[in-house]
Inverse folding.
């Protein structure tokens, strides 16, 4: 190291050792020494490279000041003035001078370390004042865990160049006040005019409105053309009115009950769950589209939906450019810390199949849950500590300082556009009332609510600030409030005059060509056949491997077998039937998207849609190489999430009806980790919000002795949700019928979710195949009659669905049973009752009809069927099944086989023999074991 004549002794040895460590690895020494070695000249070099003689005290204090600066950058957020109604918790060690080897005696000393924060050589008092204003004022910045030096430098330069203090023009300040006045006055008006009605007010966090207004303006200046917003119920009405521009009259009419129509088929939802979309024009004249997603009361469920919707628009509308659209998620402090879905969705941020270019997260931090204190709601210091997972910066902001919040959100918007990463803003505020307006919060937080009662609202605080600095006259503020309240009263008067605000559904945008379905649409499926030449051409292409690439030998063998199906046998198994559906849709220019755990290969090693070369990591996707004109084929192995990913795919399908969007569960019963999405969106969104969706769910299902968790996809849970033609539920038995079911999603001018109970052992059952003509002729068959039995010989009819058919068929053939017909109910909902009755009527000598299922009597389709058939010609139908059970299936393979053998024997009214045992055991050996 360069030598200085005045350094010697232990100091010289110490500094010399630090310098050597620094030369090997700069991160090996603390921050202050890094800066010292970077920026200070140590004088001339000595021949031995050591550091000589004595260092003055000031030398070490320069390093201490650098460490002080780094201390503020690292931990300043712990000592901010960000809590408007509570004293902040104490954190040790503090940022006092003594903790950095400095004292008050040094305050008037000039230190060169001021260069580090851009103010040049400066007194320590000035340096501390700078750091206090930048890092310990109304904004606390938490960002030092970010690992990219360029990002760290950018954040610090942005904050330190402004001292984290906004500088707005008079016009900008008045715009902020205008939006803040709208937010406060709107809540006050609702509270006085609709006393006692739930509205989940924004009071205490009204600064959110000018913040959202500003981020739309800032985003538009930075190239954003669209925002997709997701939020819970708190403050939603305020956002709808003052950001989304839903008319005050319409909102008041909803409070008056004018949105209901006795003739409407829709059940509707409470006003603080509704979505809305609109176009707004910024001050600069730029058009921005805003979408607020509808949401249930299940907090944070909407997160995945927002991300999926945004990604869909990126893919379809913006040509993959995520700089033109941004998602905004508005959380609560209790939910962002407590709901696991937040983690599931945040983990998608950098994944190729799910990333959206960064999300702006706003947390309305009321410092309380329903009644739960924040100290009981989390272990982490902050409710936003999950941001560290994706190395996303967090800005903690005092919700009473509206200018600080607007400044912070603008900075967040810049960061998102520049680095395409998530960013969090933690708005420290309060909830003026209880969880809802009728709730009494003093039962559980008496001291807090005593303080809140005496606390001025953010508008009044800001008005006082503006008057004090000469930016506003008191009379102007009063006139602004009076004028706006007059507008609200006028809109309320107009709302009272309305008879009804109900309007028939009219789809727009990407959905403009769609309509609401009617019961008649489900009488018969549309034609979905593909001509022979096209089908065989596609079959050949997806089963032919490129000669210049080397694949695993088992893959080559598998694709040779598939190619024989295409070129020789013209008999296709399940995997080929599925991929032919995708291939034919892609050839028609449609987009196909499939995601879920292990979908590229398939849980049961059947799909192999993505192939990895044997000697490298390169991947080859046959379905992506059909033709230059084909539609995109997107297939992604998801992270180990059901709740988040299913919500994402629902959102993807929600944005655009022109993609076949599919989510596959690893095993069917694993969907129960996403039950909330099924209940609150898939099953009920059309009834509640008049939103259609064509999402497809593939749920592997079937009893093969794999135990309680790998057998049942819980058919009964879907069936109990079926009503109003809200979805389609199928358990088809042939590759061709599956092919037609998938193609049917595009063959109609409406969209319905499709739930498919897919096979496991049937994937390798040689009987589960379809001939070429089954693909090139016809349509999806809701009911399939028995082709093997003469109708006049039949005196017993078995109805069944899915895999059990093949075991019944084998029993029927082996024992040459001629008097029992097996009818397959391929579609469980909408129930094709007319088709069932027509097929059954063809067996004129039949004396009884039975429903046969593998599931226990209290599960599967039977509970639904017995309810729906009791007033039909099938009112006497009985069931053959496992006995009712609290668990889906036995964990013992022998018990499974005994139960299956009993079902087969009972179906044909025969004693259980070794034949039934063998048939039952076959299904166990055919499934690919994965656990």
């Amino acid at each position: 190291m360069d030598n200085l004549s005045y350094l010697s002794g232990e100091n010289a040895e110490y500094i010399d050792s630090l310098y050597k460590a620094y030369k090997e690895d700069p991160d090996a020494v603390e921050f202050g020494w890094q800066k010292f070695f970077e920026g200070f000249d140590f004088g001339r070099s000595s021949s031995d490279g050591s550091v000589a003689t004595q260092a003055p005290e000031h030398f070490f204090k320069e390093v201490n000041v650098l460490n002080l600066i780094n201390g503020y950058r690292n931990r300043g957020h712990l000592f901010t003035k960000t809590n408007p109604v509570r004293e902040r918790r104490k954190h040790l060690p503090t940022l006092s001078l003594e903790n950095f080897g400095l004292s008050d005696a040094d305050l008037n000393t000039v230190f060169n370390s001021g260069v580090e924060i851009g103010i040049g050589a400066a007194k320590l008092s000035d340096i501390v004042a700078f750091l206090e204003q930048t890092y310990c004022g109304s904004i606390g910045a938490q960002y030092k865990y970010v690992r990219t030096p360029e990002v760290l430098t950018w954040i610090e330069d942005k904050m330190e160049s402004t001292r984290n203090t906004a500088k707005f023009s008079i016009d900008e300040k008045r715009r902020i006040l205008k939006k803040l006045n709208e937010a406060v006055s709107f809540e006050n008006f609702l509270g006085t005019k609709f006393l006692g009605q739930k509205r989940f007010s924004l009071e205490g966090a009204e600064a959110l409105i000018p913040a959202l207004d500003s981020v739309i303006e800032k985003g538009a200046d930075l190239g954003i053309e669209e925002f997709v917003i997701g939020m819970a119920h708190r403050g939603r009405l305020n956002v709808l009115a003052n950001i989304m521009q839903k008319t005050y009259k319409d909102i008041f009419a909803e409070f008056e009950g004018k949105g209901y129509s006795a003739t409407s088929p829709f059940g509707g939802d409470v006003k603080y769950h509704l979505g809305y979309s609109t176009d707004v024009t910024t001050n600069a004249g730029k058009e921005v589209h805003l979408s607020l997603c509808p949401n249930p009361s299940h907090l944070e469920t909407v997160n995945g939906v927002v991300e999926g919707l945004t990604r869909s628009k990126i893919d379809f509308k913006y040509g993959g450019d995520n700089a033109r659209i941004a998602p905004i998620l508005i959380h609560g402090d209790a939910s962002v810390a407590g709901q696991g879905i937040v983690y599931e969705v945040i983990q998608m941020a950098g994944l190729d199949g799910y990333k959206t270019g960064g999300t702006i997260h706003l947390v309305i931090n009321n410092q309380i849950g329903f009644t739960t204190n924040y100290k009981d709601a989390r272990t982490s210091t902050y409710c936003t500590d999950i941001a560290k997972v994706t190395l996303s910066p967090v800005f903690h902001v005092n919700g009473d300082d509206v200018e600080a919040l607007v400044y912070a959100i603008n900075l967040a918007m810049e960061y998102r556009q520049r680095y395409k990463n998530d960013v969090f803003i933690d708005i420290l505020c309060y909830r003026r009332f209880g969880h809802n307006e009728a709730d009494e919060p003093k039962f559980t937080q008496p001291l807090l609510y005593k303080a809140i009662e005496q606390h001025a609202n953010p508008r009044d605080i800001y008005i006082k600030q503006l008057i004090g600095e000469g930016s506003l006259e008191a009379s102007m503020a009063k006139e602004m409030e009076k004028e706006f309240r007059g507008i609200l009263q006028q809109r309320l008067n107009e709302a009272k005059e309305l008879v009804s605000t109900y309007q028939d559904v009219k789809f727009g945008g990407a959905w403009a060509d769609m309509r609401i379905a009617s019961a008649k649409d489900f009488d018969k499926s549309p034609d979905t056949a593909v001509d022979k030449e096209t089908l065989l051409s596609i079959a050949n292409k997806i089963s032919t491997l490129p000669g210049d690439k080397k694949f695993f030998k088992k893959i080559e063998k598998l694709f040779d077998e598939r190619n024989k199906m295409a070129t020789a046998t013209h008999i296709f198994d399940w995997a080929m039937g599925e991929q032919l559906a995708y291939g034919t849709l892609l050839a028609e220019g449609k987009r196909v998207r499939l995601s879920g755990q292990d979908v590229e290969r398939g849980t049961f090693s059947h799909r192999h849609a993505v192939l990895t070369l044997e000697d490298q990591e390169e991947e080859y996707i046959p379905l992506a190489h059909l033709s230059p004109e084909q539609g995109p084929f997107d297939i992604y192995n998801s992270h180990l999430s059901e709740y988040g990913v299913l919500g994402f795919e629902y959102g993807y399908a929600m944005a655009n009806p022109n993609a076949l969007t599919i989510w596959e569960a690893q095993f069917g019963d694993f969907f129960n980790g996403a039950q909330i999405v099924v209940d609150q969106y898939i099953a009920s969104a059309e009834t509640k919000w008049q939103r259609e969706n064509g999402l497809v769910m593939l749920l592997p299902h079937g009893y093969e002795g794999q135990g309680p968790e790998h057998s049942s996809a819980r058919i009964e849970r879907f069936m109990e949700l079926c009503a109003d033609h809200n979805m389609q539920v199928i358990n088809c038995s042939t590759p061709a019928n599956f092919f037609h079911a998938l193609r049917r999603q595009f063959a109609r001018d409406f969209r319905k979710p499709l739930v498919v109970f897919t096979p496991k052992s049937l994937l390798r059952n040689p009987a589960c195949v379809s001939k070429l003509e089954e693909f090139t002729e016809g349509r999806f068959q809701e009911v399939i009659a028995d082709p093997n039995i003469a109708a006049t010989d039949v005196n017993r009819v078995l109805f069944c669905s899915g895999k059990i058919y093949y075991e019944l068929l084998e029993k029927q053939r082996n024992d040459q049973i001629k008097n029992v017909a097996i009818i397959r109910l391929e579609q469980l909902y909408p129930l094709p009752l007319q088709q069932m009755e027509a097929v059954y009527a063809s067996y004129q000598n039949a004396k009884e009809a039975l429903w046969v299922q593998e599931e226990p009597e209290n599960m599967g389709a039977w509970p639904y069927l017995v309810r729906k058939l009791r007033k039909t010609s099938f009112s006497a139908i009985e069931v053959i099944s496992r006995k009712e059970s609290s668990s889906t299936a036995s964990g013992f393979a022998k018990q499974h086989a005994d139960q299956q053998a009993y079902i087969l024997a009972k179906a044909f009214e025969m004693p259980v023999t070794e034949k039934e045992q063998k048939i039952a055991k076959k299904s166990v050996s055919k499934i690919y074991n994965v656990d």
